[in-house]
Amino acid sequence: MNNKKIIISLGGSIIVPESGIDWEFLKNFRELIIKYIKKDYKFFLISGGGVTARNYIKAADNIVKVTDNDKDWLGIHSTRLNAHLLRTIFYDFAYKEIIKNPTIHFSTNKKIIIGGGWKPGWSTDYVATMIAQEYEIKTIINLSNIDYVYDSDPKISKQAKKIKETNWTNFRKLVGNKWKPGLNMPFDPIASKKAQLLNLKTIMLNGKNLNNLKECLDGKNFIGTIIEGK
Question: Which domains does the chain have, with CATH numbers?
Answer without folding.
Answer: 5-227 (3.40.1160.10)
